Amino acid sequence: MGIDLPHGHHVKKTNRDAPASKDPYLGLLVKLYRFLARRTDAKFNKVVLKRLFMSRVNRPPLAISRLAKYMKGKEEKIAVIVGNVVDDERLLEVPKLTIAALKVSRSVRARIVGAGGEVLTFDQLALRAPLGQNTVLLRGVKNAREAFKHFGAPGVPHSSAKPYIRSKGRKFEKARGRRGSRGYKV
Fold first, then answer.
1. How far is Cα 63 from Cα 87, in angstroms, rounded to an integer?
2. Tens-digit pLDDT profile for the chain (186 aa)?
3. pTM of the predicted model, to two decimals?
4. 3-state DSSP helix/strand/coil percent for the chain, to nearest 5?
5. Within 13 A of 48's CA, how many CA atoms are on the CB side?
6. Opening angle at CA 82, ends 79 and 83, nearest 5
7. How far apart are CA 96 and CA 90, in angstroms?
C-alpha cells in the first residue's frame, strides 16, 4: 500500500508565464516588457507583460468609439490597449489621439492619422514612456462576446440565458414554458 501524502504539496501554477502564440514579434515584445518589469518599479510594465501573455478571449477588441469616450479630457495622454482596436462607423468625428495597441485596423489607423493623431507600437511606447508615465491603460469589454449570452440555464425561472436554437421563429421553442397559453410561462 502506498503512503498518503499530505495534499497541497504539488499545486500546479496555472498562471501563464509566456504567451501560447508562436508569433516571433509578440515574443520580442514579451522579452522587452519582461526586462522593463524586472528592472523598473513601475506596475504599468508588469500589467502590460501579464496582458501580453493572455489568450485572445481575454484580450477583447476595443472600438474606436469607446476609446474616444474613455479618452475625453485626456487627449494629451497615450491610450494603451494590449489588444486590437477596431473601427466604428457610428463615430463620425475622431478626436486627435495617440494610441499604442497590438493591432489597429487599417480604417482606424487612417482615421486617427487623418485627425492629426498618432498610432504607436509597443516598442515605440517603451522608448517614449518606459515607466508608463502619461498613459491610460484600457481594455475592451470581455462580456460582449455572443457566447456570454448563452451562459447559464435557459428556461429556468429568473434566468435570461439565451438558448441555442436552430432558428428564431414561431415553431422554435415557443411552446410550454415560453407562453402562458401553453401550460405556463417562466
1. 6
2. 777 767 767 778 899 999 999 999 999 999 999 999 999 999 999 999 999 999 999 999 999 999 999 999 999 999 999 999 999 999 999 999 999 999 999 999 999 999 999 999 999 999 999 999 999 999 999 999 999 999 999 988 888 999 999 999 988 988 888 889 988 888
3. 0.86
4. 30, 15, 55
5. 33
6. 110
7. 17
